[in-house]
Amino acid sequence: QNAQQAAKAQVKADDRQHVFHSWSAQAKIDPLPVAGGSGSTFWDYDGNQYLDFSSQLVNLNLGHQHPRLVAAIKRQADKLATIQPAFANDVRGELARLLAERAPGELNQVFFTNGGADANEHAVRMARQHTGRRKILAAYRSYHGGTTTAMSLTGEPRRWANDPGDASVVHFFGPYAYRSAFHAASAEEETQRALEHLESVIQLEGPGTVAGIILETVVGTNGVLVPPPGYLQGVREICDRYGLVYIADEVMVGFGRIGEWFAVDAFDVVPDLLTFAKGINSGYVPLGGVLISDAIAATFAERAYPGGLTYSGHPLACAVGVETVRVFEDEAILERVRDLGERVVRPELERWAQSHPSVGEIRGRGLFWAVELVRDPQSREPLVPFNASAEAAAPMNEVAAACKAAGLWPFTHFNRVHVAPPLVISEQDLRRGLAIIDEALTIADSYVAA
Ligand code: PLP
Question: Which of 72, 332, 353, 406 could form a disulfide with 323 if both were Cys (CB 3.0 to 4.6 A apart)?
Fold first, then answer.
């Protein structure tokens, strides 16, 4: 017990004195020292266990310490811990082949990166080199990563402090029926008007100046926005009509999060470039990449691609990627995600929409859901304002604190609670976690005007 407390004190001291944290005012944070994790749970040094309904940063798809993933790293470390990207390497090639075999259409080549942001940087670079055009269209309410161009693509407040970044990015509105930018009354109308809007933006920007469009297949952090029927197909048609590269950002929603290898499979579209990271190997070793269509790969057949990374296709990362694909198949992960999503999560969240006055809308697919909280179900005024200050965000902070006190680590963003547990979560833990959120929502209910 004393040793545990001494270890915790050291972790805290080192962290506060020397670790500079992401997105934070350094003096205002108090990071929880984590002592360990297993499957869908992690724990601190005081014996508190947390059921992880956020899968860390929605990357821990196969949970903590999956024995087969850990063994794959150890095997590869014994064999060859690193090799630079200009060589051919067995696990790097095998992972690229496994991805190409599972990806739709003619996405047959893979450029490996260290994570999601640099995957998007390279996808944009490929689109620009391929078309000879410069502008990229990206959606409001999107997150594409923390490097310069990825940050510029991002359509939410994290971009603001970093502007001007890449000045050739133009933002447009994607579909979001619950808060329609187009005053649409139905999903069909939302699709149609969102596509008309996108086409107008292209025309006003000058089609000959636009290299491509980047879209999260299901918008992740900014709301689990599932595209309405026909939208992504319409985007594909617009890209074909104007010769634009369609980039699908599947960093968060690829690899089983919505019950598909690639989220585009759920919407019957094939992009020209598809970026991935996170779930590719549950983040055990940093890895991301771009799946590239034959047509774009051909651009770089005789002409050098101007880009590279020391750790592109790192063997430790690729070895866990290969094992991830095998585990997905051996444990029938895609099937269980679809089953748990439809049989357990959807009915429970639909029940909340009836029983909690603060629940404005629920939406999602697979093991990826959002519960949008409101102060007034009629006007749909959000429970806390967009991009609220710490004080104004108090109701959301109280909901999150209640979840943590009951042993659940939630994912909250603005006025939403997301449900994004590891894909290996047991049905019992899934139900237990949902019950904790159900209870915590009574706090949100207390802010709804009578
Ligand atoms: N794209 C999407 C949709 C994401 O959700 C994220 C991270 O959350 C990224 C890109 C950036 O990935 P990374 O943090 O690995 O650079």
Answer: 72
